[in-house]
C-alpha cells in the first residue's frame, strides 16, 4: 500500500490553512492521519507552529524528535498515570485537566504544571460545567494556568452560540487564552473580537487535525499492488471461508488488509444503514453478504470475496473485465484517519 504525496502541493495547502487560522495548533495523534507522527511533527516545525497537540501521553515522545515547541496532551490528566505525571512536570508540556478533583490532585503534588482547564460542552465527553469554572480556578495552587479548552461537536448549527456562551463563562471565571476545536477560522476570529474589547481581541488558539493534514485530497493518491490473479467459474469455492464465486471471472489478490485498515472503517451513521436496507431489498451482491471493497479496477469499486486478511484482500472481477497484471498499482480509497500505508512516496 502506497501513499503518493505531491509534497509541494500538500505543503502549499498546509501553508494556506496555517495562514488562515489564528493561533493554529496542529493536532498530531492516532495513526498520524496516515502520515505518521514524525512527518507531521516535521511539517509543524516548518509551519513554525509554537505548539502542537497530541492525543495521549505516549505520543509526546513521537513528536519530540521533529518538533521542539510546546506539546499539549488532549486526553485529560487522571491520577495514577506515571507517564502523565512525569510529563506534567515538563516545562514544554501542557496538561489538560477536566475535573475539579483532578485539579486538586495535581495541585496537591506541588507541581507547577502548565494546565488547560477543559469546559464541558454539548459533546458531554469531558470537562467542568460552566457554573463550576470559578471553583476550579480556586483550586489551581501553583499550577500554571494556560487557558480554557473548549471541544465542540461537529454540527454547525448552534455551534457559534455555544462557543460564545461557554467562552464568556470561562473568561468571567478567569481571563486566559481560549483553545477551541472544530470552529471555522472566520467564526473564531469573530468570537475573539466579540469577547475582547475594541482593538483588543481575546486570545484564541484553534486546534486543527483533519482539515489541516487531509484537507487537500488533490495532493495525494493511495494505491495498492496486485499480488495475484486467478480465473474462477461461478460456483468455484474461494478463500478461507470457501464461499462460492458469484460469477465467472477472476479472483484478484490485492496488497492491503486489516493491518492497513482495509475493511476497518469506523462504524457509519444511520444513513448508510438505510442504504443497506435498500440494497437488500433490490437484491444486490451486498444483500448476498458481499461487501464492496475500496479497490477500483476499470473505473469501478470491486466486491470483496470475503473479509480482508491481515495483509492481503481477495476481490472478484467479472469475466468481461480485463484483469490487471501482477505488480500493477490499483487505486484504493483509504480513510487516512484509520489507515496505515507501507510507504509514502513523495512525487
Ligand atoms: C482530535 C481532536 C482535534 C482534532 O480533530 P480533527 O477533527 O482531526 O481536526 C481537535 N480537538 C480535540 C480536543 C481533539 O481531541
What does this structure look like?
By secondary structure, this protein is of the alpha/beta class. It folds into two domains: 2-213, TIM Barrel; 221-346, Lyase, Ornithine Decarboxylase, Chain A, domain 1 (Beta Barrel), CATH 2.40.37.10. Helix content is 27%, strand content 26%. It has ten helices and 18 strands. The chain has helices spanning 7-20, 37-46, 60-64, 82-88, 100-108, 133-138, 159-173, 185-195, 210-213, 270-281, and strands at residues 2-5, 24-26, 51-54, 70-73, 93-97, 114-119, 144-151, 178-181, 204-208, 220-232, 237-238, 243-244, 249-255, 292-297, 300-303, 312-318, 329-331, 343-346. The strands form four sheets. It has an eight-stranded parallel sheet with strand order 2-9-8-7-6-5-4-3. Helix 7 (159-173) packs parallel to helix 8. The radius of gyration is 24 Å and the shape is elongated. The chain binds pyridoxal-5'-phosphate. Residues 27, 29, 74, 151, 181, 207-211 line the site of pyridoxal-5'-phosphate.
CATH level-four homologous superfamily name of the largest domain: Alanine racemase
Envelope shape: elongated
The span between the termini is 16 Å
Helix/strand-derived category reads alpha/beta
What is the correct CATH architecture of the largest domain? Answer: Alpha-Beta Barrel
Biggest sheet descriptor:
8 strands, parallel
- What's the arrangement of strands in the largest beta sheet? 2-9-8-7-6-5-4-3
Contiguous low-pLDDT stretches (5 residues minimum) are: none
Radius of gyration: 24 Å
CATH topology category name of the largest domain: TIM Barrel
Helix content: 25-40%
The CATH C-level name of the largest domain is Alpha Beta
* Beta-strand proportion: 25-35%
Would you tell me the overall average pLDDT?
A: 92
What is the count of β-strands? 18
Amino acid at each position: 500500500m502506497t501513499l503518493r504525496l505531491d509534497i509541494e502541493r500538500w505543503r502549499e495547502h498546509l501553508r494556506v490553512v496555517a495562514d488562515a487560522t489564528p493561533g493554529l495548533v496542529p493536532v498530531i495523534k492516532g495513526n498520524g492521519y496516515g502520515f505518521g507522527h514524525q512527518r507531521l511533527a516535521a511539517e509543524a516545525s516548518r509551519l513554525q507552529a509554537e505548539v502542537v497537540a497530541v492525543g495521549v501521553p505516549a505520543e509526546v515522545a513521537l513528536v519530540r524528535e521533529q518538533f521542539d515547541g510546546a506539546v499539549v496532551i488532549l486526553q485529560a490528566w487522571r491520577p495514577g498515570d506515571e507517564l502523565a505525571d512525569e510529563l506534567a512536570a515538563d516545562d514544554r508540556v501542557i496538561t489538560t485537566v477536566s475535573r475539579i478533583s483532578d485539579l486538586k490532585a495535581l495541585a496537591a503534588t506541588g507541581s507547577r504544571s502548565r494546565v488547560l482547564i477543559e469546559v464541558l460542552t454539548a459533546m458531554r465527553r469531558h470537562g467542568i460545567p460552566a457554573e463550576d469554572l470559578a471553583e476550579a480556578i480556586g483550586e489551581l495552587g501553583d499550577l500554571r494556568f494556560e487557558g480554557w479548552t473548549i471541544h465542540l461537536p461537529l454540527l454547525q448549527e448552534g455551534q457559534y452560540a455555544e462557543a460564545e456562551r461557554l467562552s464568556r463563562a470561562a473568561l468571567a471565571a478567569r481571563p486566559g487564552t481560549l483553545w477551541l476545536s472544530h470552529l471555522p477560522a472566520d467564526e473564531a476570529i469573530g468570537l475573539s473580537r466579540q469577547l475582547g474589547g475594541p482593538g483588543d481581541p481575546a486570545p484564541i488558539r484553534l486546534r486543527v487535525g483533519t482539515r489541516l493534514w487531509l484537507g487537500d485530497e488533490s495532493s495525494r493518491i493511495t494505491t495498492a499492488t496486485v499480488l495475484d490473479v486467478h480465473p474462477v467459474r461461478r460456483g468455484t469455492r474461494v478463500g478461507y471461508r470457501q464461499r462460492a464465486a458469484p460469477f465467472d471471472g477472476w479472483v484478484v489478490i490485492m496488497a492491503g488488509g486489516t493491518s492497513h485498515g482495509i475493511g476497518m472503517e469506523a462504524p457509519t451513521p444511520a444513513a448508510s444503514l438505510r442504504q443497506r436496507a435498500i440494497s437488500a431489498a433490490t437484491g444486490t451482491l451486498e444483500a448476498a453478504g458481499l461487501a464492496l471493497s475500496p479497490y477500483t479496477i476499470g473505473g469501478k469499486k470491486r466486491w470483496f470475496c470475503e473479509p480482508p486478511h491481515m495483509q492481503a484482500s481477495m476481490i472478484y472481477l467479472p469475466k468481461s473485465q480485463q484483469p490487471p497484471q501482477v505488480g500493477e498499482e490499483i487505486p484504493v480509497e483509504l480513510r487516512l484517519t484509520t489507515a496505515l500505508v507501507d510507504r509514502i512516496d513523495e512525487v
